[in-house]
Amino acid sequence: MKTIHKLVLKSYLGPMILTFFIVMFVLMMNIVWRYIDELVGKGLSAGIIIELMTYFMANMLPLGLPLAVLLAAIMTLGNLGENYELLAMKSAGMSLVQITKPLIILVGLISVGSFFIGNDLVPYANKKVLSILYDIRQQKQNLEFQDGLFFNGIDDMSIRVGHQDPTTHLLTDVLIYDNRSASGNMNTIVADSGYIRLSDDKRFLLVTLYNGEMYEQTRSTAGSNWYIKSSMRHHIFEHQEQVIPMTGFDLGRSDSNQFSNSQTKDVRALQHDIDSLEMLVNTSTNRSYEPLLKERIFAKDHSVLKLPDSLRIDHTDYYDALLLDSIAQLSTRDKERVWDAARASAKNSRNLFSFDESNAKQALTQLYRSKVEWHKKLSLPVSILIFFLIGAPLGAIIRKGGLGMPVVISVLFFVIYYMISLTGEKATKEGNWDAVLGMWISTIVLSPIAVYLTYKATNDSTLLDTDWYAGRIKAIQERIEPYTAWCKNKFKINIKHKK
């Protein structure tokens, strides 16, 4: 490797790593704000949260790499151009393609790696994310008592405390409604103070109460007049301890393999699903509509109203018009008979050729989503190359490094790419666009821009040179200045004549 290539590669790796972590941090903040309500109040350990964030980060890798590559390319070539290093390389006879050759190889390797990330790592991470989120949603809220309010986070129990000491966690003025008995008996406990907490494994509720009373209402379920035979038991205690089995407060771990959708499959599994769903859709469509084309339906059923012999031979193509004329000549009773026969025939046709819309729509939706994911796994790696081919020429043209102008331009191009991608993806999922067009339209739109910018940068274009634009504007002003002066003089002369 040439020394100059080492210089360019070293200049690129630093901004690449920096921008990658910045982009991933921004994307992760979006994920945190989206799921913050589900993570708070569950007493989750730091290990679970770190594991979930790790899988989220793996899921965001294919989306963060294109923006990081674009921003790093603009910064690197902008820094080289601002420090006149790029100009020195071109003066030595090197073209822009030769200068960026190691970067092209590196970005190509990143693109290939991003395909395997999207094909192997992302589906696995999506399974884990779905599994952990499902377990978190199934987990009950942690014990959090508020003064004067009932806590109903435990099945068949309601607990109210007057005050909870923030340091010792001592509860005062405790009221418990316990309706866990299978026989329908309800216990009411009133205590001056106590402690209520979960065990370390969150499988038991440890209740310790002091100076209280317990009221137990017993019911007899024999007969229809159970309410007449109910009774009340009263018990006074100075110290009472209960160990109540609990479920749902500990975080159970589900098998991630049971969570399967289009986002949890690789290209091979998606292709298998696409083939299967296309066969299912075609079979359903043929089963529903093919009989309509082969069998006689009501519109061609001559048994409803037979035509006269004079109309059967030469005028069968005009059956509808002749049918209306024939109906108009019938009596009221015959018209009613024809109407009843037509309605019965229509109902039979509808029942015979009914189309299962729910199953067909579900199959079509799964088919569209599978196609979207299949093409997305291929389009995202290509977008990395497109973004590099946009960023490198832009950096060479604007000759500005740092995080100012490069960030603005990068975000602008990424927003355009993201909006076009979302529009195409939505249209594809709704079945309005073909999957090839919907998922590759952003690449189709940005590819000519990349080719144009590469051409301009190779030929040392002044596309974004503000001094060049200022000079052109000044030249235009000098050309139109005589005409402007003549117009002013003409205007003044006209005003004098009017006066």
Ends apart, CA distance between termini: 83 Å
Overall pLDDT confidence = 77
**Which of globular, elongated, flat, extended, rod-shaped describes the shape?**
extended
Strand order, biggest sheet?
1-2-3-4-5-6
Instruction: Give the helix/strand class.
Output: alpha+beta
* Unreliable parts: 296-305, 310-319
H/E element order:
HHHHHEEEEEEHHHHHHHH
Radius of gyration: 38 Å
Supply the key terms.
499 residues, alpha+beta, 13 helices
Describe this structure in words.
With 499 residues, the protein is of the alpha+beta class. It folds into four domains: 3-138 and 375-458, no CATH class; 150-245, no CATH class; 258-360; 472-499. It is 62% helix and 12% strand. A hairpin with a 5-residue loop joins β4 (186-198) and β5. The longest helix is centred in the last third of the chain and has 42 residues, at 357-398. The chain is extended and about 110 Å long. The N and C termini lie far apart (83 Å).
Brief write-up:
The chain is an alpha+beta fold.
List the helices and strands and how they pair.
Blueprint: H1 3-39, H2 46-82, H3 85-91, H4 96-99, H5 101-138, E1 150-151, E2 157-164, E3 171-178, E4 186-198, E5 204-218, E6 231-245, H6 267-294, H7 309-312, H8 319-328, H9 332-352, H10 357-398, H11 405-429, H12 435-458, H13 466-498
Antiparallel strand pairs: 1-2, 2-3, 3-4, 4-5, 5-6
Helix pairs in contact: 1-2, 1-5, 2-5, 2-10, 2-11, 5-10, 6-10, 10-11, 10-12, 11-12
